[in-house]
Amino acid sequence: MPRSFNSYRKYRSPSFHKLYRPAAKSLKGAPVLQSRGDRPLKMEFEDQLKALIFFHLEDHSSGRHLIQVLKEDDFARKHIAPKDGIEKSSFFEAINERGLEQLQFVYSNLCSEASMVLPNRYRHLGHLVAIDGSLIDAVLSMVWADYRKNSKKAKIHLGFDINKGIPSQLHLTKGNGGERPFVSPILDSGQTGICDRGYQDHSLFDDLQAEGKHFLVRIKSKTVKTVVRQNDIQPGGIVFYDAEVLLGTDQNNTRTQTPVRLVAYRVSGVNYWIATDRRDLTAEQVAEAYKLRWEIENFFAWWKRHLKVYHLIARSQYGLMVQIYAGLITYLLLAIYCHNVHKERVSINRVRELRIQIQNELRETGCASDEYFFKEQHDFRLHAKT
User: Fold this and answer.
1) pTM for this structure?
2) Is residue 21 part of a domain?
3) 175 near 147, Cβ under 8 Å?
4) Tens of pLDDT along 321-352?
5) Is residue 236 one of the residues assigned to a domain?
6) CA nearest 262: which of 211, 213, 227, 214?
């Protein structure tokens, strides 16, 4: 007898597998996901990884929405969901309690691959990393996410590699957590951190110079400045100040112990005062580099809007880290995919194109399977008559 129709249908999407391939490669050597207790795992780590990537890529609105798709959508059920399916309780247990170490491993490997594949757009400015925090709206039951009275928020502290256009180091705190302590952990030796005025801290400037880490930080214009040496400036340009200075005063013990370079420039009637230790750059290049800080603002806005990374599917701090790492991994995969396929940076047009392409491939595969099945049925009937 002929086999059933379902045995012939193979829901394949070359585009999805092309997107996912770097993640699959990065799994080599990953820590093994262990079951807690005697019960076997309902969801292996790769199942968890695929489900979370699928969640962000296909713009699902909630964890419940994703679970329904994993149960009812043919492609998701066959190629994304665990072999034996997944129930709501097992899914949310996995998200909130397992997989973080493995996701961090995959994320680190993908960052390395993306850094090798993607072009270096601002080589003349050195290795620039924009640093900023972003608030995540939480619910009142998330008691660890302190922010204000009757308000809960979490905060991610992120480094963004400006040259490559990809995220780098990540930390998560409660919403009212300080931002300055994360500058040094985010930066590697030789990198330049670019930060807004909220990161002005004179002792931090001393520490970074001692650690061999660089900075470009906008400071308040009223900050007390003791000039050590004045530098020449080009007349007629946007730069109107360039000097070696000590910032702060001895009176309140805030003065920098090591001189910093202070560059000031004016754009559209706004004065920008930038403290830095980058003496290898011209004053105009300092201004150019600081302007690139907006890259991280643009990333946060795009990432939150188009990949829905702040639609909570976890309530614990552990689970939220799992969700955020999955969102960053999805972005890295898209960055690698867009470069390899289109030689372009990530854009919503290319993401929409990929989503449509996946669906078209699935429809084409389904139609081809239908034709194959009906041909088999026709041949079988002819054989039976003879």
Assistant:
1) 0.88
2) yes
3) yes
4) 999 999 999 999 999 999 999 999 999 999 99
5) no
6) 227
Q: Would strands 260-267 and 270-276 be described as parallel, antiparallel, or unpaired?
A: antiparallel
DSSP 160: E
Total structural domains in the chain? 1
Q: Tokens 């490997």: give the residue.
A: 109
The DSSP string of 20-52 is HHHHHHHTTTPPPPPPSSSSPPSS-HHHHHHHH
Coil, strand or helix at 197 = helix
The CA-CA-CA angle for residues 205, 289, 119, to 5°, reads 120
Question: Up-side HSE of residue 365: CA atoms within 13 Å toward CB?
Answer: 17
Q: Is residue 34 part of a domain?
A: yes
Residue 175 belongs to some domain of the structure: no
Tens-place pLDDT, residues 48-71: 999 999 889 887 778 888 889 888
Strand partners, 192: 128, 214
User: For residue 105, what are the CA distances in angstroms to 110, 112, 274, 324, 358?
Assistant: 9, 11, 36, 14, 27
Name residue 172's amino acid. Answer: L
Structure-derived torsion over alpha carbons of residues 284, 288, 290, 294, reported in degrees to the nearest 10: 160
Which residue segment(s) compose the domain that 30 sits in? 5-103+314-369
